[in-house]
Structure formats: structure tokens, C-alpha cells
Design a protein that fits this description.
The chain has four helices and seven strands. The protein is of the alpha+beta class and about 140 residues long. A seven-stranded mixed sheet has the order 1-4-5-6-7-2-3.
């Protein structure tokens, strides 16, 4: 039996299906307490090292989970005999500003032999995320006026 989660097990960790806070917390349940989390990039507010407990909070801030949303795993490469895996995903839904949200992204993760994620690097479409953050802040500003 391979020492690391299989591609199928990794797909299950990242849960195809209805997206929402419960899916995001399900991924966090597989984090090692000393996980190293990095959002790769130089020119956007998400870039840099981050804490496990709030890594996905920006999705909760941006998406309207009262409307249908989905997190889909498109592809998993690695796992099994290798501690490293690459997970290609797409998240779809509606932003809190009412716009369609379609975001493609990739995680590169490293597992320990206990099956916990000890390192995670997120590669997001920074221009897309920044645009949704901008619209979200404009929407919030209108609501407070």
C-alpha cells in the first residue's frame, strides 16, 4: 500500500460537489497543525504566507453561498508513492456583488505519511480575484450608505 493518499483520496479531500464553508473547512481538516501555506504571487493582496485557519476566508467573503456554487477537481497528478500532488480546480458560483464567479486555480501540496497536508502552495488567477475583491468592496460600500 502506498504511503501517501492516492489520487482518488486526494480528490475526495478537495470534495467535488456543492461548494460552501463546509467544503472549505473539510479541506482544512486535512491540514497538519504546522502546515506551511503560501499563496504564490507578487502583485495581489492574497500573496504570501498565510495561516491555515483563515486561508479560505476570502472565498467566504466573496461568494454568496445562498446561491448554487461548486468546487470541482479537474485533475490530480501525484500522490500514492509520492508525497507531492498537484490539484487543478475550478470554483463557480455567484459573488456577493451579483456577478458570475468562475475561478480556475491550482494547489501544489505535500503530504506526510499520516495523510495530512504539511505544505500547500496556491496558484490563483490574481487579476480575477482582485477584480472580485474590488467589486465586493464597492458592493459593501453601497450597502453601508
Amino acid at each position: 500500500m502506498p504511503p501517501y493518499p492516492s489520487t482518488y483520496q486526494i480528490e475526495e479531500i478537495f470534495q467535488d460537489g456543492e461548494a460552501g464553508p463546509q467544503v472549505l473547512s473539510g479541506i482544512v481538516d486535512h491540514f497538519d497543525p504546522k502546515i506551511q501555506l503560501t499563496v504564490v504571487g507578487h502583485d495581489h493582496h492574497l500573496a504570501g504566507d498565510t495561516q491555515a485557519h483563515n486561508h479560505f476566508s476570502f472565498f467566504s467573503e466573496l461568494l454568496d453561498f445562498s446561491k448554487p456554487s461548486k468546487l470541482q477537481v479537474l485533475r490530480v497528478i501525484g500522490g500514492g508513492e509520492s508525497p507531492w500532488a498537484c490539484i487543478e480546480c475550478v470554483a463557480t458560483g455567484t459573488s456577493k456583488g451579483g456577478k458570475n464567479f468562475h475561478h480556475d486555480f491550482v494547489f501544489v501540496v505535500r503530504f506526510n505519511v499520516a495523510g495530512k497536508i504539511v505544505k500547500m502552495r496556491g496558484y490563483y488567477d490574481s487579476a480575477h480575484m482582485d477584480e472580485h475583491v474590488k467589486v465586493h468592496h464597492e458592493h459593501r460600500a453601497k450597502d453601508t450608505n
